[in-house]
């Protein structure tokens, strides 16, 4: 049986280049990986963006061609990517597709310090007081968000040179994508029992560990959890451990 393809959904402000260390590790382990920048990141029309638009892009551009080819998929989501990623995955599990006579499908979900959103939740709605953190710079006229001191917010504990490059590669985030409601997510579905995982970052200055732990604990479903003494970017500072965990779960979930 062939290995599942990994589909990586980046977080807000981020693009595939930020995940290069992890992508390289997974390719070394012989996994094919597909990813793309979300439409809400670096958008020239930020006020027209939304979770639904990002989810549609993931479904049509990343998942669709693989499903058409009958591929098994591990869906890997970072940060905000958990909102549109889980939305896009709805109804596309291998179990559901097999039941309808279709080949391929999503065999497992892996969240990397990502939002676990219920239907109707936005990222903003999950923040205390429905207010953006103090490090978020909100340009309401343009409908864009940027980040103050991204080294401290995203890359604490990351090698200085790697962090500098990552900061230079950050792009403005369309605000409406973070304040618009998520559609029905796939993660609560029983077809993913024993096939959903969460990598928690204990030194995360973006989504604090306590928030990550609460989302998992009160989700109402079981998760395979990996805790790392990491920033919001464990794929940069704990690349080997993250890759090994993903490979371990890919093997378990696909067979």
Description:
With 255 residues, this protein is an alpha/beta fold. The protein has ten helices and nine strands. The strands form two sheets. A six-stranded parallel beta sheet has the order 2-1-3-4-8-9, with helices on both faces. Strands 5-6-7 form a three-stranded antiparallel beta sheet. Helix 1 (20-28) crosses helix 10 and helix 2 (51-68) crosses helix 3 (82-89). The longest helix is centred in the first third of the chain and has 18 residues, at 51-68. The chain starts with a strand and ends with a helix.
Key phrases:
single chain, 255 residues, alpha/beta, Rossmann fold, six-stranded parallel sheet, three-stranded antiparallel sheet, 10 helices, 9 strands, 35% helix, hydrolase, Sec-Metab_Biosynth_Hydrolase, Alpha/beta hydrolase fold-1
What's the average pLDDT? Answer: 96
Predict the CATH topology: Rossmann fold
Could you say what the CATH architecture is? 3-Layer(aba) Sandwich
Give me the count of strands.
9
- Supply the number of helical segments: 10
Q: Please describe the biggest sheet, giving its number of strands, its sense, and whether it closes into a barrel.
A: 6 strands, parallel
Structural class comes to: alpha/beta
Unreliable stretches covering 5 or more consecutive residues? none
Count of the domains: 1
Q: Could you state the order of secondary-structure elements as H and E?
A: EHEHEHHEEEHHEHEHEHH
Helix content: 25-40%
Classify the oligomer: single chain
β-sheet strand percentage: 15-25%
The strand line-up of the biggest sheet is 2-1-3-4-8-9
Can you identify the CATH class? Alpha Beta
Structural shape: globular
The separation of the N and C termini measures 9 Å
Pfam families: Abhydrolase_6
Domain AB hydrolase-1: 6-244
Protein name: Alpha/beta hydrolase fold-1
Keywords: Hydrolase
């Amino acid at each position: 049986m062939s290995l599942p393809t990994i589909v990586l959904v980046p977080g807000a402000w981020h693009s595939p280049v930020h995940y290069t260390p992890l992508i390289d590790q997974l390719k070394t382990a012989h996994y094919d990986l597909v990813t793309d920048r979300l439409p809400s990141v670096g958008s020239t029309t930020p006020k027209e963006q939304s979770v639904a638009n990002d989810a549609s892009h993931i479904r049509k551009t990343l998942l669709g061609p693989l499903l058409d080819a009958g591929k098994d998929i591990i869906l890997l989501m970072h940060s905000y990517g958990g909102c549109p990623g889980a939305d896009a995955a709805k109804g596309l599990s291998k179990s559901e597709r097999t039941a309808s006579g279709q080949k391929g499908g999503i065999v497992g979900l892996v969240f990397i310090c990502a939002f676990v959103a219920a239907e109707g939740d936005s990222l903003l709605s999950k923040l205390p007081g429905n207010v953006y953190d103090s490090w978020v710079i909100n340009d309401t006229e343009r409908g864009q968000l940027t980040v103050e001191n991204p080294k401290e917010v995203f890359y604490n504990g990351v090698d200085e040179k790697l962090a500098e490059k990552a900061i230079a590669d950050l792009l403005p985030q369309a605000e409406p994508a973070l304040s618009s409601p998520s559609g029905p997510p796939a993660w609560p579905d029983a077809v993913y029992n024993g096939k959903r995982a969460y990598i928690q970052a204990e030194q995360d200055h973006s989504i604090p560990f306590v928030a990550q732990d609460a989302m998992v604990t009160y989700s109402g479903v079981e998760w395979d959890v990996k805790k790392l003494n990491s920033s919001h970017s464990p794929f940069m500072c704990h690349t080997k451990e993250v890759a090994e965990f993903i490979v371990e779960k890919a093997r378990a979930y696909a067979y």
